[in-house]
């Protein structure tokens, strides 16, 4: 089995790899065929199973960043709140730090470790399907730290812990990415808070001629770093709630002590990370916040055991539309039906508040909406070779929707946060079961472009049962 990293691929590419019908119009023209030796031709014609994995930072529990200061400082309690969104999670660490007198220095550095291993950028650009490959400082979003409700100095940094080889730092010996806060050195108990967002990790498997399978999204938490504190930590609790997902979607692996997991009436899951011996149940835990999906060669998508069809049978209007895309082709909301070209909002600014109105010709139960955001650097490689050589830079030049509000039939509204890549993403209505006639999508926030304020979409495909 061949394995690739995967952070973004045009829907057309996925359908072609799966052997689905109708992929050719979305792809760039292929070069003229050349005669090859029989042996080489046989190897190329043989179907290949492909396994792909997304790239996302994996956060851990906080650690002291300077052991010469840490002796005597205790982490008295840690409360971790996880808000599960559709394509990323928002985390809040609330740490009770007990700082004794006599600690040297004006500030005490405390860091959240991240396991993050993106592929080499040059090799990525040279691959047949370049992936979305973000630097660490852009892969962790909305990062901020505060002490006693006052914002403190913090930064996303790279490099090994300065005492990584110390026995007590074994849980983070291989870590080279951090969110570090500078805590003012004042004796007493203080509340340190970290906040940040990270996308989920997902696996994809491609069976030529059969299907594309996107695995369940996963959020992994490294729990063993909590043991780097002097005397351990008496209390470490996780609270998980579903801000954009159904509560029934959340799963935990390993399940730890099932008796310790409590579900409140509002759907908040609470459990202790520590066992009776004061140590974490496992070096890491994995939250599965939602379903995966399978796309077959006929354009059928299966989500949570229900099968629907990708449809382009709809009428669509936009609140505004840019005249032309960067390639000089007309922008139109109708381009979203087939992935041929793009739609971009046409107002001044970044397009927040602009809308798309969809009217289905064949109403039915809506299982989800498949979207591709931004301008893919592999759409027209023969016309834009510079974008092909520098795919991530090219993609970042144009705005992409970050969060959208979706209204069904004018009566049911839900929010969805998207990943910052050109991967096919499915937005799922959490609870709505009635047949859907109309869909309204409003851009609420964006990932800003570095070269223009225009915000682009490439595909909009309702999945109707």
UniProtKB/TrEMBL annotation:
Tree of life domain: Bacteria
Q: Which InterPro entries match?
A: NADase_transloc
* Organism of origin: Akkermansia biwaensis
**Protein's name in the database:** Uncharacterized protein
Q: Which NCBIfam families match?
A: NADase_discoid
Signal sequence span is 1-28
Q: Which UniProt keywords apply?
A: Signal
């Amino acid at each position: 089995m061949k394995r690739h990293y995967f952070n973004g691929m045009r829907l057309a590419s996925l359908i072609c790899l799966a052997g689905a019908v109708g992929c050719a119009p979305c792809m760039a023209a292929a070069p003229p065929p050349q005669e090859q030796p029989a042996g080489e031709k046989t190897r190329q014609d043989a179907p290949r199973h492909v396994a792909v994995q997304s790239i996302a930072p994996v956060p851990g529990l906080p650690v002291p960043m300077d052991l010469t200061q840490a002796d005597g400082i205790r982490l008295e309690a840690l409360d971790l709140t996880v808000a599960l969104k559709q394509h990323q999670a928002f985390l809040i660490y609330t740490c009770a730090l007990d700082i004794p007198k006599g600690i040297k220095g004006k500030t005490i550095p405390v860091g959240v470790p991240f396991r993050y291993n993106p592929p080499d950028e040059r090799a990525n650009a040279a691959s047949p399907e370049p992936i979305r490959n973000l630097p660490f400082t852009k892969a962790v979003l909305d990062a901020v730290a505060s002490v006693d409700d006052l914002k403190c100095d913090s930064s996303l940094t790279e490099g090994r812990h300065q005492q990584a080889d110390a026995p007590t730092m074994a849980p983070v010996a291989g870590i080279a990415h951090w969110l570090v806060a500078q805590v003012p050195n004042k004796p007493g108990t203080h509340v340190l808070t970290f906040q940040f967002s990270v996308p989920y990790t997902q696996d994809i498997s491609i069976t030529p001629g059969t299907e594309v399978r996107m695995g369940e999204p996963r959020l992994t938490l490294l729990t063993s770093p909590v043991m780097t504190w002097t005397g351990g930590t008496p209390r470490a609790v996780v609270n998980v709630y579903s801000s954009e997902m159904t509560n029934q979607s959340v799963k935990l692996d390993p399940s730890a002590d099932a008796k310790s997991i409590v579900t409140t009436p509002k759907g908040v899951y609470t459990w202790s990370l520590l066992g009776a011996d004061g140590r974490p149940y496992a070096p890491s835990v994995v939250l599965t916040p939602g379903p995966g999906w399978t796309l077959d060669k006929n354009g059928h998508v299966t989500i949570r055991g229900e099968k629907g069809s990708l449809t382009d049978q709809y009428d669509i209007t936009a609140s505004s539309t840019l005249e032309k895309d960067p390639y000089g082709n007309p922008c139109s909301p109708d381009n979203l039906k087939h992935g041929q070209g793009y739609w971009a909002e046409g107002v001044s600014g970044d397009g927040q508040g602009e809308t798309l109105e969809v009217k289905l010709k064949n109403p039915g139960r809506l299982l989800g909406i498949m979207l591709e955001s931004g301008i893919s650097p592999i759409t027209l490689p023969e016309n834009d070779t510079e974008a092909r050589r520098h795919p991530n830079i090219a993609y970042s030049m144009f705005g992409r929707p970050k969060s959208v509000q979706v209204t069904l039939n004018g009566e049911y509204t839900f929010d969805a946060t998207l990943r910052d890549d050109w991967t096919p993403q499915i937005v799922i209505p959490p609870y709505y079961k009635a047949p859907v006639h109309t869909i309204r999508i409003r851009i609420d926030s964006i990932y800003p472009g570095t070269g223009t304020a225009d915000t682009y979409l490439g595909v909009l495909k309702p999945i109707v049962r």
